[in-house]
Amino acid sequence: xxxxxxxxxxxxxxxxxxxxxxxxxxxxxxxxxxxxxxxxxxxxxxxxxxxxxxxxxxxxxxxxxxxxxxxxxxxxxxxxxxxxxxxxxxxxxxxxxxxxxxxxxxxxxxxxxxxxxxxxxxxxxxxxxxxxxxxxxxxxxxxxxxxxxxxxxxxxxxxxxxxxxxxxxxxxxxxxxxxxxxxxxxxxxxxxxxxxxxxxxxxxxxxxxxxxxxxxxxxxxxxxxxxxxxxxxxxxxxxxxxxxxxxxxxxxxxxxxxxxxxxxxxxxxxxxxxxxxxxxxxxxxxxxxxxxxxxxxxxxxxxxxxxxxxxxxxxxxxxxxxxxxxxxxxxxxxxxxxxxxxxxxxxxxxxxxxxxxxxxxxxxxxxxxxxxxxxxxxxxxxxxxxxxxxxxxxxxxxxxxxxxxxxxxxxxxxxxxxxxxxxxxx
Length: 426
Ligand SMILES: [Zn+2]
Prior knowledge:
By secondary structure, the chain is an alpha/beta fold. Helix content is 35%, strand content 20%.
């Protein structure tokens, strides 16, 4: 009797353990894994804890599995935005960052990234942000500690800029001292120290403004702003610490130099030429063109005083860079989805998919650019970016198949991050 009761107790304990490892079967109407070019029907994805543990037909469902029935939906991997700035807001963003304390910026930014998660962005890479401290990493750490829902956050603390460059405030009298939204550094030594600090306070990417920018006041995107010596110092320092570099570069010379010197990604790449395309391919560098933000600027910034430079430059150069982006896509340059979202209106970021399709990508190629390609950019392709057994269960669902209408990605209906539902069908 005694042995039987011990056995019974063990069985009870074991079944309790089993029950605590509950599996959930997601019944997919259609399934795009982003692992290949197919759209699957009659598929079930089984999630346990934060991982995908089985993919198969309905007969893999056991009686004790929980069911999420998404029969009428298309399931895709969680989206990854490779270029965002959660703390920046407003067309006069270069002064807005001074209005809130770092604590306020963190609270505001948390809300922003939570909105993005609900739009389907389960991972984001911050391309440097506008806070005098590191509020965006406080957001990341609070999310990782399980205190709040939010996307996986990677990226850079700030963008490094030369004095008078795209990350400096160039419209204040010389006797005033304000902290620019970028990290202003000149010379090898300052760059080295800045990079060490960025890494110390949580950056897993270094962002450098190799050329001037479109949205900042008083500098020229067609100038290369860092010297060769400074650029080399930046890439050497980051590389020695195993941290990749993303280079904001508009000017042709800046793009080509940054690739040759060893960055992992070029942001914008506006004035890329034939040589740039060859260099991208030769050095296996990613291009994050952030195309849609230009289109948005043309629609929105016509009467904006702070963004009149951006509006004029975009109008002037749009035709040229659209032509070159098309060429880059046709030649097989690795292109990722990056929105340059600075708290723009809801569902802004997913319009980048539409822009990439207009530039010649197939809808599936664009979906892969915002999932698998970006996971590879982040060097996280073993964890995220596709729906595969063993990977983290970051999944989204749309009502229509985005292969038939890519704009459907602006209407994501269901989001699961790491096995937890963060947005459900209403
Ligand atoms: Zn940006």
